[in-house]
């Protein structure tokens, strides 16, 4: 009889303390007045509780997984939408710059033509001058227009270099944009599929979870929910695997493992406070 007496879990921190208190089994197991057939009933009942808890855990973990999968996708879609919008703006700006540069090039080409026309006219006028002063004045005009042409040609070369650069940038931005648009389309349809695919499954799992919760006594359920909330991976009930807690991987001594297997009381991990079940019970539920 002594071996079935609950040894309280070590109290590492508030959570374990609370968990141990809530799950405390003294009123069930340590009742010295228990008769054998009553004890059998109690054993079954603890086993049933463990099964109910682990079933609920499995179910809730499935809901968690759905949320995790879907949880990342909307963010990825949002990031891609931002990328696409950013690239579209960049390309628009480049195109405006290119149009401006092209306009500037054609303006300069036009002014070269005008200078050439003027030079031609001045040279014709030089054939009909009345004196040297008029001839020299026309020569100066021709020189001035020649310099204007050189300047325009220099500007055209500069604009053309900028045009080449911008056109290359537009092309690479366009390629990047195409890639991002493809990614976005793929992620969007993935998200739509997952939402469509998991919506029903999630609803069913939530319904199932509600049903399963009704089978578990209030205090135990409160403990379960609290442990689950505080656990990083949402695990409140874990199997013993390779002599260790399936939640925090701390070593569990053989005697404690034996106690867990007996299903005579609810045992929590001394280190992380999670409720422990034996591998056999866990495997029977998978
Ligand atoms: Zn643990």
Detailed description of the structure:
- The radius of gyration is 41 Å and the shape is rod-shaped.
- Strand 3 and strand 4 form a beta hairpin.
- Helix 1 runs antiparallel to helix 5 and helix 3 runs antiparallel to helix 4.
- It has a four-stranded mixed beta sheet.
- Helix content is 76%, strand content 4%.
- It has 286 residues and is mainly α.
- The relative contact order is 0.16.
- The protein binds zinc ion (ZN).
- The site of zinc ion has 8 residues, from loops.
List the helices and strands and how they pair.
Blueprint: H1 13-23, H2 26-29, H3 36-126, H4 132-214, H5 218-230, E1 237-241, E2 244-245, H6 254-262, E3 267-268, E4 275-277, H7 279-285
Parallel strand pairs: 1-4
Antiparallel strand pairs: 1-2, 3-4
Helix pairs in contact: 1-5, 3-4
Bound molecules: zinc ion.
| Poorly predicted sequence stretches spanning 5 or more consecutive residues | 1-37
Proportion of helical residues: over 70%
Oligomer: single chain
Bound molecules: zinc ion
Give the amount of beta strand, in percent: under 5%
Query: How many individual β-strands?
Result: 4
- Main sheet: which strands, in order across? 2-1-4-3
Task: Output the radius of gyration.
Answer: 41 Å
SSE topology string: HHHHHEEHEEH
Largest sheet: 4 strands, mixed
Features:
7 helices, 4 strands, about 290 residues, about 75% helix, mainly alpha, 4-stranded mixed β-sheet
Provide a short characterization of the protein structure:
By secondary structure, this protein is mainly alpha-helical. Helix content is about 75%, strand content about 5%. It contains 7 helices and 4 strands.
């Amino acid at each position: 009889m002594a071996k079935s007496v609950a040894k309280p879990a070590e109290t590492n921190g508030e959570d374990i303390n609370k968990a141990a208190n809530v799950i405390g089994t003294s009123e069930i197991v340590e009742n010295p007045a228990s008769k054998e057939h009553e004890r059998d009933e109690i054993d079954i009942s603890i086993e049933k509780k463990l099964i109910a808890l682990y079933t609920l855990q499995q179910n809730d973990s499935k809901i968690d997984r759905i949320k995790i999968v879907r949880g990342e996708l909307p963010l990825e879609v949002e990031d891609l939408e931002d990328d696409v919008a950013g690239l579209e703006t960049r390309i628009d700006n480049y195109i405006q710059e290119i149009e401006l540069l092209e306009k500037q090039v054609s303006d300069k080409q036009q002014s070269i033509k005008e200078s050439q026309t003027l030079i031609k006219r001045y040279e014709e006028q030089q054939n009909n001058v009345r004196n040297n002063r008029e001839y020299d004045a026309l020569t100066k005009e021709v020189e001035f227009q020649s310099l204007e042409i050189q300047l325009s040609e220099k500007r055209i070369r500069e604009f053309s270099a900028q045009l080449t650069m911008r056109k290359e940038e537009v092309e690479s931005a366009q390629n990047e944009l195409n890639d991002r648009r493809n990614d976005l389309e793929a992620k969007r349809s993935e998200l739509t599929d997952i939402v469509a695919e998991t919506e029903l499954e999630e609803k069913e799992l939530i319904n199932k979870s509600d049903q399963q919760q009704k089978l578990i006594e209030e205090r135990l359920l409160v403990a379960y929910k609290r442990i689950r909330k505080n656990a990083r991976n949402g695990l409140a009930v874990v199997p013993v695997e390779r002599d260790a807690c399936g939640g925090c991987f701390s070593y569990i001594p053989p005697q404690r493992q034996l106690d867990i297997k007996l299903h005579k009381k609810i045992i929590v991990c001394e280190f992380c406070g999670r409720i422990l079940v034996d591998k056999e019970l866990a495997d029977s539920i998978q």
